[in-house]
Each structure stands twice: as C-alpha cells, then as structure tokens.
Amino acid sequence: MKPNEVKALQDIEVYGCHILHVLAEDDSPPFCYSMGIEKCTGQPELIITGLKRELTHGIINEYNNRIKNGETFEADRYYDGFLKGFPVLFKKVDRLHYAEYFGWAQWLYGRDHFSALQLIYPTTAGVWPWEAKAIDSYLKMLPRLYRV
Q1: Would you say residue 79 has pLDDT above 90?
Q2: What is the DSSP-derived secondary structure letter of residue 96?
Q3: 3-state secondary structure at position 30
Q4: What is the pLDDT, as a whole number, of residue 115?
Q5: How far is CA 67 from CA 37, 60, 64, 75, 92, in A?
Q6: CA 133 – CA 118 distance, rounded (Å)
Q7: I need a surface site. Which of 12, 42, 70, 135 has the fewest CB within 10 A?
Q8: Taking the domains of the chain in order of start, what are their residue ranges?
Q9: pTM for this one?
Q10: Banded model confidence at residue 111, pLDDT cuts 50, 70, 90
C-alpha cells in the first residue's frame, strides 16, 4: 500500500474521514470532498466546490462532527451553522459525476458504492444559483453535480 493510501485510511480510523482538496484546473473550480464518512457512520460523503481550502476543510469537519453527534442531513433541505450568516442546502450528487470528482472515494468504496451530497451556498448577497440574479462567475464555482 502506498504512503498516501495508508495516511487516508489512518485519518478515517482516527477522525472518521479523510479530506481531499483538488486545485482549480482550466474552467473547473477548486473543490474538496470527504471520504470515509459513509464507511464510519452510514451518512453521505460531502463535496464543496469553489471555496477556499481552509474554509472547505472546516465545513467538512463540521459536517462530520455533527454527524458523529447524531445529526443527519437530507438533500433539498436548508441548514445553518456551516457558513456564518448564511444557510446552506445539500443536493444529492448524481453518480455520473463520481469518476470526475470522487476518485479517491471510488478507491475506498470500490467504484460508486457510496452516496454523496453537494453543499450549495448562496452569494454574499444571498442569491442562490437557480435565481435569475445569479452571475456567471458565481455559477462557475458551483458546477451542478446533481439532477434538477
């Protein structure tokens, strides 16, 4: 087993997840995702696109900790406590996007045998991606990984 694989498995054992950060490339925004949350708790993995690495790691850790404390999160519901002053919404990730966005999670689970949620956040003005006021630069940060 490679050292990075050992590290990922150790993080999952100690913390309940391992977080991966993928840098922006071409027209794709940066993103972070968890792996191991479903393995440890039965709850979906989480992916966040377009936000800074430190912020996304903090949000994923908050999500993981809240799950470990018994909270559950459902798709298409708003939740507070992840972004200061703004609710967030979770959407179920369509498996068609797993190969592009969840490479390591596919390694852990064996292809697409896991579920994942995408965290959707509003602009600082409170605009959501489905609103007519949503600007292109914001929409590029939130690729639609879910079915409409």
Answers
A1: yes
A2: G
A3: coil
A4: 98
A5: 9, 11, 5, 15, 17
A6: 21
A7: 70
A8: 3-141
A9: 0.96
A10: confident
Residue 148 has pLDDT above 90, yes or no: no
- Tokens coding 102: 């969840």
Q: Which of 104, 114, 90, 94 is nearest to 41 (CA)?
A: 114
> Rounded to whole angstroms, how far apart are CA atoms 28 and 101?
11
Q: Is a pLDDT exceeding 90 seen at residue 93? A: yes
**pLDDT greater than 90 at residue 73:** yes
CB proximity list for 6: less than 8 A, separation 6 or greater:
none
State the Cα–Cα distance between residues 53 and 57, nearest whole angstrom: 6
Distance CA 130, CA 142 (A): 11
Residues in the chain: 148
CA 12 to CA 127: how far, in whole Å? 35
Q: Averaged over 14-24, what is the pLDDT? A: 97
Owner of token pair 């809240």: 66
How high is the mean pLDDT of the chain? Answer: 96
Q: Which long-range contacts (CB under 8 A, 24 or more apart) does 57-64 make?
A: 57/19, 57/21, 57/32, 59/83, 59/119, 60/17, 60/19, 60/32, 60/33, 60/34, 61/19, 63/34, 63/37, 63/119, 64/15, 64/16, 64/17, 64/34, 64/37
